[in-house]
Design goal:
One of its GO terms (biological process) is base-excision repair, AP site formation. By secondary structure, the chain is mainly alpha-helical. The chain is built from 11 helices and 2 strands. The chain has a two-stranded antiparallel sheet. 38% of the residues are buried.
Length: 227
């Protein structure tokens, strides 16, 4: 069982230092060439792997290019084009509705504010933060996906449970200059080592400062359940 540093700011600093060294090329893993493609890829990525999204989008982005084309695509046609994605029917509806609003209300351009983005169908703070950061170079929050939720709780950086509350809590302890990379580092480490099931604590660069380390720890702080 590792021992987290106190206060939390020191724990975050040490986690960042080690993960920056472990994953020096950490960045977004979705493929896109413009803001609209980024928005659509992120909508599709909810509860789906980036690898699968990239496979689907390779053909999707050749078929549809403009917001109008997505908005005018028949529901059945667009759903069929993304049918290997989780919740593809709902996501097809989100894409068509969002693109209609982009075409009609935003001059065909993906919005550059949190409020305008979250007004689009299927776009919450997580999606909006990704689009702002990687589409508009605007960093005003921390993207909290399942990896960030799991790792920040395991590492005793937060005790909050919902993504919204976790983000607000992290903004107080993660240096603003690291807000964007914090997410990428958590995702990389979550995929490589600190997986949801059976994490590889024996080969983890954070084991000695992680209170959830299962060598001696009894509880996975991410779930609150015993290992």
């Amino acid at each position: 069982m590792g021992t987290p540093l106190e206060p939390r700011e020191e724990q975050v600093e040490e986690v960042l230092d080690r993960l920056y060294e472990e994953y020096p090329d950490s960045t977004i893993s979705l493929n896109y060439s413009n803001r609209l493609e980024l928005l659509i890829a992120v909508i599709l990525s909810a509860q789906c792997t980036d690898e699968r999204v990239n496979e689907v989008c390779a053909d999707l982005f050749e078929t549809y290019e403009t917001p109008e084309e997505y908005a005018n695509a028949p529901q059945e046609e667009l759903a069929e084009a993304i049918n290997s994605i989780t919740y593809y029917n709902s996501k097809a509806e989100y894409i068509r509705s969002s693109c209609a609003d982009i075409a009609e209300k935003h001059g065909g351009e993906v919005p550059d504010t949190m409020s305008a983005l979250t007004d689009l169908a299927g776009v919450g703070r997580k999606t909006a933060n990704v689009v702002l950061q990687h589409g508009h170079d605007v960093v005003e929050g921390i993207v909290v996906d399942t990896h960030v939720q799991r790792l920040t709780r395991r590492l005793a950086i937060t005790e909050e449970e919902s993504p919204t509350k976790i983000e607000q809590d992290l903004l107080d302890v993660v240096p603003e200059d690291d807000w964007q990379q914090f997410t990428h580092l958590m995702i990389d480490h979550g995929r490589a080592t600190c997986t949801a099931i059976n994490p590889d604590c024996g080969d983890c660069v954070l084991a000695d400062i992680c209170p959830s380390e299962k060598g001696d720890g009894d509880v996975d702080l991410a779930s609150g359940e015993a290992w």
